[in-house]
Amino acid sequence: MPDLLPMLGRTHGNRSAVTCALKCDSACARPVPNLSTEPTFAAVASQALVSRRAVLVGGAVAAAAVAGPQLLGLPEAAAVEGRPAPGERAVRGGFSFTPIAAVSDDVDAMTVPRGFSWHPIIRWGDPLFHDSPRFDPTQPDADAAERQFGYNNDYTDVIVTDRRGRKALLCCNHEYTNRQIMFPPTTTPEAEADVLRALMAAHGFSVVELERRGTRRPWRYVQGARLNRRITATTPFLLDGPAAGSALVQTAADPTGTRVHGTLGNCSGGTTPWGTVLSGEENFNGYFVADPAAPGSARYGLTDKPSSYGWEQVDDRFDATKAGYANEPHRFGWIVEIDPTDPRSTPRKHTAMGRFKHEGANVRVDDEGTVVAYMGDDERFDYLYKFVASKKFRSGKSAAARRHNLGLLSEGDLYVARFTGEQRPDNANLGTGRWLPLVRDGRSQVEGMSVEEVLVLTRLAADKVGATPMDRCEDVEPSLKTGKVYVVCTNNTDRGVKAGKPGPDAANPRAANKNGHIIELTEAGGRGDAETFEWDLFMVCGDEGQAGTYFAGWEGPVAPISCPDNIAFDSRDNLWISTDGQPGSIAKNDGLFRVPLAGRERGHLVQFLAVPVEAETCGPVIHDQDGSVFVAVQHPGEDGTWAEQNSFFPDYVSAGERPRRGEWRGPRPSVVQVVADR
Ligand code: FEO
Ligand code: CA
Ligand code: CA
């Protein structure tokens, strides 16, 4: 294996060194790929901002908020007393919960509120088909892995498919793998090649049918169900849109430039109004060896060093320096669209939506039927984008409407965001912004670049038009009730720190932004195709007593939160926020939080659950009217080894009990349902 630990110890990016190496090719240890040096609006000098909150709330409350029993190492759910969730009693359905306290980052347990239970619905390695082999990590095998649930579940949706609410489709990404804890060490190159192929097969995407005996009951997955499907790093995809077939995406193996094998680095995503699932190919650069002098290599973090995963040892196309493969990296970094209702459909990669480190894509249809997808590029100082489809959404369930809607993301306009605004002492910042066109009406809007170049080398195009460098946009999701868009910036510890890089600005207000923030964006006229917007800071994360935190003006106690990542909305339009990086930033296990977006309680953040040691909270899916919350527990026990595992999630023998001699147990990333006790 290549050097996996260039960032040994807790990294300045907040994650463990192992997670950094595997998930994003240690991006934080490498130079920032955005070489633009000019911030696009006046950088405000870094200053110690003391928020009004910090003065009002003070440290005593902050200390009380974390002094739960978890700090004593108790694995049981523990609650902060008091505070019923806002607005509960007035609303039918939904649920109340007593918030949990933050959980210390050495606790290997799922922590959920009192009165709730958690159940793994499906785990890495669970068999999906009637002929799937049983899970046996001592025998790494690609054929087996292709027929089992993949590793490191990330984007998740649970789509109920029948009127009685007893059948559903689970759709789930498998972002990356951790060879060191998944499989035993090998002693021969042949055996290690088998491991590499098994890892390729554990990537990608799963569709799994679920069933249950009644509403408000746990779901279970159905082995051998008709719609069950695995998509892996070798599954055939169709490249579509304006850059498909261009010279930039042709290889010796695919002179048509339209047929790609596999998807990888699939991080977040979104479910479309027409029932397909979108998935973002994020840190694809870590899978390739490439010519560092090739156009775009530096900007996309591609190098000629051995890749983090070593797949070039078993599949030549991952070495783009080899004859015929120079363009293979151009065939990754896209938004992919998968139809979970048709297991024989060929999934597609949409070049019209641009190529960058796509976190995900979330679609809204506005009142005029305009289809807009919001997308973040998750890299320090990279950008926020939107895609506006050329054609309008067609409602109804006819075959013609379905065919039409399946083509919506193949053609449209691509924009990148520029923010302007005012930085206030209490971080109640707000301002306006403009969507700068990159492609419009089928024509490039970027001087010196063709449409194909803009779409394949989108970062270079966005640099040229003066987009605003952001603090790592993760999920970007519109509320389907209000149309407001929530832009989650997870962190950027380089802002205002690295020479030549932008300092704080109104939309990215903190130097060395370790804890992240969330921007609330309102399109002009509520239109998906608006060219301007207004925005405000919704949340500047951290421990509530910290200087510079801001919770939408809420001045009571809040849960400590850091590194917001994926978000979701519940039936009452509360925002739910999952985190990735709290162990490194505030020494707490990552969690899931809820915050009202409107009303008297706007900004009142509470914590719903915490995931086990070294795990990240992904998903999430909120079926509050059904008493359920789903999370994908990703990379539990990430820093362990095959011989010395750090987590035993989710198959704890019993709290605190270690496996018997000779019995292998270790962490299995799983999709978990948290359900109110009956
Ligand atoms: Fe895979 Fe941007 O998190
Ligand atoms: Ca993410
Ligand atoms: Ca993340």
UniProtKB/TrEMBL annotation:
Transmembrane segments: none annotated. It comes from the Bacteria. PROSITE patterns: TAT. Pfam families: PhoX. InterPro entries: PhoX, TAT_signal. This is Phosphatase. It comes from Microlunatus sagamiharensis.
